[in-house]
Amino acid sequence: RSGSTGPASKMAGADGDDSLYPIAVLIDELRNEDVQLRLNSIKKLSTIALALGVERTRTELLPFLTDTIYDEDEVLLALAEQLGNFTMLVGGPEYVHCLLPPLESLATVEETVVRDKAVESLRKISQEHSPVDLEVHFEPLVKRLASGDWFTSRTSACGLFSVCYPRVSSTVKAEIRHTSDYDTPMVRRAAASKLGEFAKVLELDYVKSDIISLFTALASDEQDSVRLLAVEACVSIATLLPQEDLETLVMPTLRQAAEDKSWRVRYMVADKFSELQKAVGPEITKNDLVPAFQNLLKDCEAEVRAAAANKVKEFCENLPEDNREQIIMTHILPCVKCPEVRLNIISNLDCVNEVIGIRQLSQSLLPAIVELAEDAKWRVRLAIIEYMPLLAGQLGVEFFDEKLNALCMAWLIDHVYAIREAATCNLMKLVEKFGAEWAQNTIVPKVLGMANDPNYLHRMTTLFCINALSEACGQEITTKQMLPVVLKMSNDQVANVRFNVAKSLQKIGPVLDSNALQTEVKPVLEKLASDADMDVKYFAQEAISVLALA
């Protein structure tokens, strides 16, 4: 590379020919040591092309770019992208084939991102070729790439078959169908990833005769990265085939993928499950996909189970109505052993409920809910707490009181603070759902009972619950039932409890009437404000000022 005052700019100035100037500057800039400068000049290509005009862009700029571009990947990437928008700058569709040589060489470079961008631009400009130009110029390029010595050009060819196939003569179509050299894993990966879109443009007979054999080979490739891409192709192929051919042509391969020794392949099957279900239809779903789905929900790898769990709702919604309930009750719910699968069903409870009705659901789900509520992992317990208001709304108050109330109270004394905190918040949401009277009869007595617990953490939970419940329960319950307990706790031996009494009085103060504030709350806060403990003093004084009791 030379500096920016290279021979080209001297040459342009020497004979005073200004029309050479843009290309001379470009040549200099592309020889500059600074990558950023080279990158900027490529990004200005369209301006340079406009200055040169269409003919000189075709005869000078494009040959120059084709011959001289060996550069950093980011410069090549910018060039590949620019060329995709160059049709009008070379004179329109009639001359679009002039863009093929530089894009062809970019489609063979080592860096995948550059190749992919070149293929994207080639696909774009293929649409602007007339059918004749497509056969004369574009299809030979695809053939050259497909038979190239390096895997790089052959992977690029895989992305181009589908765009030229529909628009060429039957002889050329036959050539495209039989262009295949899949000797390296990289090319087989590219073939597997583009197989579905190629199948969509093929005539059905050729899908059966040519594509299926390639699909079967790729789906049993030694590399799992190839096999998992074949699962994606499976969705497209299954959509194209008539029902009677699916059983023989696709299902053996799909069954094999669902039980693949590599978890990544099984994960892909789980991830694409709803699409596969729609593609193969209700009969095959019932006979084949239900057992496969059961296995994925019970898979030994957590990632696979989680991917399958995410599809539970869609899978159940897409089951045929006549046997939907029976399949869910006998095949899906019994698999729900792993926490992530159970949580997923519970989080989609309103949808599952619509499908099978709450009575049956509650009977089959209740053991799962109880088990999760007591799970050793606190994050699982936390997740189920967050679903409690949803469950309560679906199950109704009687069922909730009978089966789940005890669980909600047990969480209040969990050994993990995050659980106790979430359980307190959960009670507030339940009171909002079921009303103050329900709270007065079922929740408040249990909460207040904890005020005498020997463990000071549990006594503090009473205060946290009162803070959360006072507003939802209203003035009467707060004044008559909760306030006396809070005031009594101001004599607790543990300073942490006493300062939380001050914080609670500040919190519930706005719910109380002014009489209770003056005659009951004020004397207790004044006593706490002269407590021996610094924190108790501080929070008592803060409560006095916030409640304006000074």
TrEMBL record:
Alphabetical list of Gene3D superfamilies matching this protein: Leucine-rich Repeat Variant
Pfam families from the UniProt entry: HEAT (PF02985), PPP2R1A-like_HEAT (PF22646)
Occurrences of domain Phosphatase PP2A regulatory subunit A/Splicing factor 3B subunit 1-like HEAT repeat (ranges): 282-340
Any GO MF annotation of the entry: protein phosphatase regulator activity
InterPro entries (alphabetical): ARM-like, ARM-type_fold, HEAT, HEAT_type_2, PP2A/SF3B1-like_HEAT, PP2A_Regulatory_Subunit_A
Domain of life assignment: Eukaryota
Family of the protein in this entry: Belongs to the phosphatase 2A regulatory subunit A family.
Name used for this protein in its record: Protein phosphatase 2, regulatory subunit A, beta b
Source organism (scientific name): Mastacembelus armatus
